[in-house]
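ok so I'm stuck.
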Amino acid sequence: MECVEDCLLKQHVHCLTTQQSTLDLVFTQEPDLVSEVQDLGPFDTSDHHLLMWVINRSCDVDRASKKVYDYSKMDTVGIKNEMVKVDWQVLNHGSVDKAWSVFKGILNDLRDRFVPLKVVGKCCRRKPVWKCVKKKSKVYAKYKDSKHPAYVDIAKKMKRELQKAKLSFEQKLAKKTRTHQEMR
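replied:
not stuck anymore, here's the structure
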């Protein structure tokens, strides 16, 4: 602990994180950066406990969700048809900078017309999973016993929901991969 103090670090975990000791730690250089460290109970496959804490920082709302081009859904046929109609000889007149500006304008116009926008950065967590996580945390906080029947029941339910969420994610990923390969 002397090393931690020498480095001016603050340790935020003050509960047992295994059955007999505190082995899982959260260090920060700013004492107010972390608050509300909670013990959510033990992992199913370990004697360590799951910890959750709040990081106190401001969030830029504009960065939370933004629109980006979804190139996986672009209309390649439409772009090809429009590119055939372009008089490419205009790039041979004037300076290289002028030609680049015209070329970039053509590409940006095609992108704006044939590539849809999508919103990214929104929360992608599945509600049933997080409801189970919260409930498991509350049950553990109430009984502080990972063998209590109420805790065992909610832990099983949470495990099933996590498996469903994982399967759903993998299926969506496989579908996107197939779609992307078909476009090539």
